[in-house]
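tl;dr need the bound structure. longer version: we got a ligand (S-adenosylmethionine) that a collaborator sent over and nobodys looked at where it sits. i said id run it. heres the input, straight from their email, havent touched it
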Amino acid sequence: MPDPCPVTRKHLQYVAERTRGDDDFLVALKESAKAAEIPAIWISPAQASLMQIMLKLKGAREVVEVGCLAGYSAIQMARALPQGGRVRTIEISPKHATFARDWIHRSDVAGRVDVLEGAGVDVLATLASNSADAAFLDADKENYPRYLDECMRIVRPGGLIMADNAFAFGQLFDEVPQESGVHAVRRFNDYMAAKPGLHAVIAPIGDGCWIGVKE
Ligand SMILES: C[S@@+](CC[C@H](N)C(=O)[O-])C[C@H]1O[C@@H](n2cnc3c(N)ncnc32)[C@H](O)[C@@H]1O
């Protein structure tokens, strides 16, 4: 069998052009976030679609996110949940949390997303065991192993655990990476791959998205 072809920027562009894009509301949210000098480091629409499809397949009702930023991924995930579903999204920056709350309030999923302000490790510790069907990690990379450990407690058996930036901002294989979190991502990737009770794979979408099922 020939080697599978490498995933290039051209492939990712091809995928993006065949994926459901942002609606006017999400375009406006991003424009407003940029105007407020919130960094444009949200997930791509293609990654949002992948995560929405996973949540729909799982029939997820309760989702926990670490790293809310402007609320983009939280809104996208909430849109994949049934009536009564809820995303609890954790954010350490008061500025980001305030912005996200405002836009979530105006969105079609108002009432389905709670922004919990605080540090990921502290807030996760307050969440009940087996209280979520899915989790998404997208915050400070150094703490990802701790977030994963907590989410293995919070997510029910059979639930999803997803994590962003497995490709370390495109610098996974760089000898002298520019981004400070690259080494942390490399350590986390090994940690996640070897985590007992978790069946996970990196989907080469966006900056690499871990998709795991808690066994
Ligand atoms: C990459 S952004 C999240 C993007 C968002 N998930 C999206 O795709 O729309 C990372 C966010 O994590 C937040 N953050 C960083 N360290 C954190 C921590 N220790 N606890 C909670 N949030 C943190 C940052 O303030 C930032 O808003």
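gonna send this back to them w/ a short note. The longest helix spans residues 45-58.
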